[in-house]
Amino acid sequence: MKARFGPATQLHDTWRQHTLAGTKIPPLSNPIIASFIEPVFGLPQAQRNEDHLHGHVGEWLWHLLTKDNSAVRVQLDPKGDVTDAGADGFSIYETSTGDLRFRLWESKKNTGTASLSTSLNKAYEQLAVSGQRYVGKIVGTYGQASSDTSDEVMALVTSLPAAWLQGDELVGAGVTISTHKPLPTMPFKKMAVKLPLLSKPGQLRGLATSIDSYIEIANLVRRYAWTAL
User: Fold this and answer.
1) 218 CB-near residues (< 8 Å, 6+ apart)
2) 97-113 mean pLDDT
3) Rounded to two decimals, what is the model's pTM?
4) 15 conformational bin, left if phi > 0, alpha if psi -120 to 50, beta if neither
5) Are 77 and 147 in contact (CB under 8 A)?
6) Are 106 and 128 in contact (CB under 8 A)?
7) What element of type H or E holds 52?
8) At CA 54, angle to CA 144 and CA 74, rounded to 5?
9) Main-chain dihedrals φ then ψ at residue 99, nearest 5 degrees
10) How far apart (Å, rounded) are the C-alpha atoms in residues 84 and 58?
């Protein structure tokens, strides 16, 4: 929630104080704070999209499970609305030799009737079809989104569009899937076939998270977001 409110820290503090106390936000402030919560979560008395909720929680699972890796230099918080056009996430990280690399991530949730392989194939297709556009958007807005604008990071960032087109070793792709279903032994076995340009060692990564109570956890997160409304 702190990430959703961004620099509006006073609004976040108001939401948090009332949430922890179990009290309602005063009427004058309620619609203001609700405007930060409505994307993804919806509002208590309005129609809401469960797919967006489950997908958003999946993006945060990926972020929280990977952001503290000592190699990671840049990894932004997930965006506040899963319907925003663009990449689900990216990382700039250091290799064991200290070289900087970029990885574009696509996130999928699987909580419906579709098979895991169907969800994964959609992720591969998005990276293959839209990856260049995603990279372009990341590069175009990087200075506004990230505080790490060191010379070495910016040198990597400006080289990304051409590197992605060529499948250069500077870039890679990752797919993360979150579900409540059992996982197959090798969930990402088709990834290399679907993304043939990224064939160099270390260019492809997959993260699969299976939690029996995944849907219940997503509902719990939303219930916390709504407590004070």
Assistant:
1) 50, 53, 54, 57
2) 96
3) 0.94
4) alpha
5) no
6) no
7) helix 50-66
8) 30
9) -80, 145
10) 15
